[in-house]
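_Per-residue structure_
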Amino acid sequence: MDPVTHGLTGILISRGFRSKKGVVGVLLTSSLLPDIDYITRLWGADVFLRYHRGITHGFLAALLLPAAVALLFRRIYSRGGFYYFVAASLGYTTHLLMDLTTQYPMRLFAPLDWEGYSLDLMFIIDPYVTGSIILGIILSLRKTSRRRLIVGVVLIFLILYSGARWYLKSMAEEFLRTQLDEYHYRLCPLPNDFLRWWFVVRSSNTYKVGFVDLFSRSICIKGVYRYTEEEPEISESKVLRVVRNFLYFAKAPYAELIEEGDRRVVKWRELSYAFLPGEHFVATVRFDRLGRVEDAFFRY
C-alpha cells in the first residue's frame, strides 16, 4: 500500500486504544517505519527496486523495530514501555500485512531468506481501502464513545474485502486454466477493478499476457513474447547493475532489442506490470555503434 494509507491506518488503530499520551505518535511512527527503506532511492531507482520491502519488511524487523519505537516513546514520556510496544507491534505488523496483499514482492524472511512473497490481491493504491479508513477516522472522532466499535468494524471490513478479492482471484485463475493449457500462471490486480485481472502465463521460454474477465467469461491475449538471449547485447546487459537489480525483482522479465539509428537499445520489461500505460518497470540499456554501453537506467 502507499505511505498515505499506512499513515492513516496507524491513526485509525490509535483510536481503538485508550487515551494515553504518545499512543498516536507510536502508531503513526510504527505504521510508516517499514518504509524507511525509501532512503535507498538516493542511490538510484534500480537500487530502490532491489531493496524496497527487504529487511525492514521482514519478520526480524517486525520484532526489533517496534521495540525501538517503544523505547523511544518511553524515554519521551517516562512511562508505558510495554503499552507502547504492543501498539508499535500492531502498527508495524499491520503495515506488513497490507503490503503483502499487493503484487510488489516482500522479503518476509530477510535477511535469512531473500525470496519475494506477494498475494497479488490489490493494486498499490486501493480507493476502497483508503476510503474506508478515512471514513472510520472521521466517524471515530465524531462518535468518541463508540470509537473502538468503529475501528473494529473498519478492520473487519478490510479483512472481508481482502477475502472477497482472494475468492475472485481464485475464480479468475480457475477459469484461466480451463482456457489456456500452460505451466505457470500469475494473476495481478488491476486498479479499481474486481472482475478483470491481468495475467502472465509462461510455457518454457514463451510468455502470454492479457486480461481475464469474470463478467464476460472471456480472456483477451494482449501479447505473446518469446524470451531469448541470442542477441549479444541482451546477454551483455545482464552484467550491469541496473539490469541485475531489475532481474532480482522481476518475476516475468522479458528483453527486447530495438534499433535506433546506428545504436542498439535493450529494454527489459516486467510483464506483470505491462497493463500500465507508458513505460513502467523498464530497465533500459543503450549501446553505441561499436557495441559499448552508453547509458543504463531504470524507470518505474
In short: The radius of gyration is 22 Å.
